[in-house]
Amino acid sequence: MELLDERNMTQYQLYMKSGVPKSTIGNIVNCSYDSVKLRIIHELCQGLGIGIDTFFASPLFQEDNLEP
Fold it and tell me: Residue 19 in 3-state DSSP?
């Protein structure tokens, strides 16, 4: 997850700050889920110290990069 790298955070540190289970964070980072609930994204954003708008501003969410 590029947001972890930008903040020099580990998955464990994000777990401690967000309360999202370590296994869930690992599955998200490893793209093991087809979708993630907005509530989980919100909790991750709180742990990262960013807003949801910043999260979705990533180039990863540009329409050209989304799978059909």
Answer: coil
CA atoms of 50 and 68, how far apart (whole Å): 28
| Whole-structure pTM value | 0.84
The C-alpha angle 8, 11, 17, rounded to 5 degrees, equals 85
Per-residue pLDDT of 47-60, as tens digits, reads 999 999 999 888 87
Rounded to 5 degrees, φ, ψ at 57 are -80, -10
CA dist list (Å): 19 to 42, 51, 62, 63, 66: 11, 16, 28, 30, 28
61 class by beta-carbon count within 10 Å (0-12 exposed, 13-18 middle, 19+ buried): exposed
Find all residues with CB under 8 Å of 64, minimum gap 6, and list them: none
